Sequence to fold (355 residues):
Amino acid sequence: MHASQGIQVNHGRGVGLGLALASALAFGGSGVAAKPLIEAGLDPLHVVWLRATGAALVMLPVAWRHRSLVRRRPALLAGFGLLGVAGVQACYFAAISRIPVGVALLVEYLAPALLLGWVRFVQRRPVTRAAALGVVLAVGGLACVVEVWSGLGFDAVGLLLALCAACCQVGYFVLSDQGSDAGDEAPDPLGVIAYGLLVGAALLTVVARPWGMDWSVLAGTAHMDGTPVAAYLLLGWLVLVATVVAYVTGVLSVRRLSPQVAGVVACLEAVVATLFAWVMLGEHLSTPQIFGGAVVLVGAFIAQSSTPAKPSAEPVAGALPGAEGTSAGEGEPGGRRDQGEHDVATGLSARGGPA
Fold:
């Protein structure tokens, strides 16, 4: 019996890691698909609108299935759409129109460190010394990424936009944590994602004004480091893979992983994006920038994994001490872990992010 449970746990962790890696790869490819479209003549806001609107249309069946969320959690859906979809993506895409994709995403990964500031000074909860160390490392790594010793010759507006994307991610994490307070009535993450995309698309329609977009760009070609690629193929990748597949695989993965493991894998998104930009867009980073990027990721992970977790209201049925990788079907009835842990993990893996 115990051997069978152990096999199920290991299988659940294996599947979860595979899904999380797929999510990181999908999210990491968004920048290299979006930047050629921007360089071909589309405004960054128009690219964000196309991405969010296309994904929202694909997720419409999910939204209809969870239509009761509109009545039950309107504020959560509105905030998720504003920050987790529209805010993160608009700021990120605007940033990569001015600075390299890898740098923009590395700056965005200051979000876990910024989240500690919210926890410590707004929620007035203590943070560990390890968490403070993570913040110091992340800020120091960022200094290397932007090469402050060269007099901040980096595009200041692009850097500010990337920092805004990080702040929007903080809001997304906080909203995900708010959603964990409802116990059995907590909203299904897939439903929140579907309505977040719908709200984000609606907001971006007002801001981006797509009726003024140069639609002919989508019928032409864009260039990835000199190689012509059909623009509609890049848009298809951006909508189907870098948004729908990325969000769905991210949500499914956290059902099988602890927040700590999901956070580690999520940090790979920045590495994947940087490598993609290097290989496909020819965006070469200097040695200090590569070193600084690695330090940012390490600091972000330490800060993220050291944030004190809220105690659960009641113990998870059937959970074993130290058994972080409980698979679906174990623990609470219905195969769900503590909902607060689930929603925090969802916030770590399903970024609009960025991005």
